[in-house]
TrEMBL record:
Pfam families documented for this protein: Pribosyltran
Organism: Lentinula boryana
Signal peptide from the UniProt entry: none
Phosphoribosyltransferase domain ranges (all copies): 66-171
Family matches, as NCBIfam families: pyrE
Pathway: Pyrimidine metabolism; UMP biosynthesis via de novo pathway; UMP from orotate: step 1/2
Protein name, as recorded: orotate phosphoribosyltransferase
Similarity annotation: Belongs to the purine/pyrimidine phosphoribosyltransferase family. PyrE subfamily.
Keyword tags: Glycosyltransferase, Pyrimidine biosynthesis, Transferase
Length: 229
């Protein structure tokens, strides 16, 4: 809210839905905000590497991995700053598990256009070939961008083992029942898509601030499009 990345009002999404809020991660672009954001991403990754429930045998934690992948363009600073925080804050922690502890977690991102000169290729940063990769995303609605990121990493020989999103809208998909998160987890494994914030967190925040009009609009939207589970 402080930098305008989160706005309340009336916004038409790519899906055609009229949303009472809009999130633009591109505006999270100052040192103090990126510091908080990267710490949140890192903490969420570490938590996601722990078993979620002893009774849930179908949900698997994110395994040891090598590279953070930030889809161009908004995901690039997420991956760069989070790899730095994982090194400075968690390198001596037994909870952060890297397959290459001697080098730490690297980061990579894709080019929007293929480069034909110099080193060429479609990726910049660490190689993802034969590496386990975690994707950092801003928000999933239809999930088009994260599926493209999974395809990019897979084409380069990488194995996507987790996705961490900044905001989970907790909405049903086009079928009115399943969610984008569940659909992506069918590709990479149940329990391997995590989020820093969820729609329920925004609603709780609005309630704490006494923003009654925005709260009512959010409740109505969740009633119409929110996950029922």
């Amino acid at each position: 809210m402080s930098c305008g990345a989160l706005k309340f009002g009336s916004f038409t999404l790519k899906s055609g839905r009229i949303s009472p809020y809009f999130f633009n991660a591109g505006l999270l672009s100052t040192g103090p905000i990126l510091a908080v954001l990267s710490e949140a991403f890192a903490a969420t990754i570490v938590a996601a590497q722990q078993p979620s429930s002893l009774n849930d045998k179908t949900s698997t934690p994110i395994p040891p991995f090598d590279v953070l992948f930030g889809p161009a363009y908004k995901g690039i600073p997420f991956a760069a700053t989070t790899s730095l925080v994982l090194h400075t804050h968690y390198r001596d922690s037994p909870n952060i598990i890297s397959t290459t502890p001697e080098t730490g977690i690297g980061f990579a991102y894709n080019r929007k256009e293929l480069k034909s000169h110099g080193e060429g290729g479609s990726l910049v940063g660490c190689s993802v070939s034969n590496k386990k990769v975690v994707i950092l995303d801003d928000v999933m609605t239809a999930g088009t961008a994260v599926r493209e990121a999974i395809d990019i990493v897979s084409r380069e020989g990488g194995d996507v083992v987790g996705v961490i999103q900044l905001l989970d809208r907790e909405e049903v998909g086009k079928d009115g029942a399943s969610s984008t998160v569940h659909e992506v987890e069918e590709i990479i494994g149940k329990g391997r898509v995590k989020s820093i914030l969820r729609m329920r967190d925004l609603i709780a925040w609005l309630e704490s601030k006494g923003m009654k009009k925005e709260l009512q609009d959010m409740e109505e939207y969740r009633s119409k499009y929110g996950l029922k589970d």
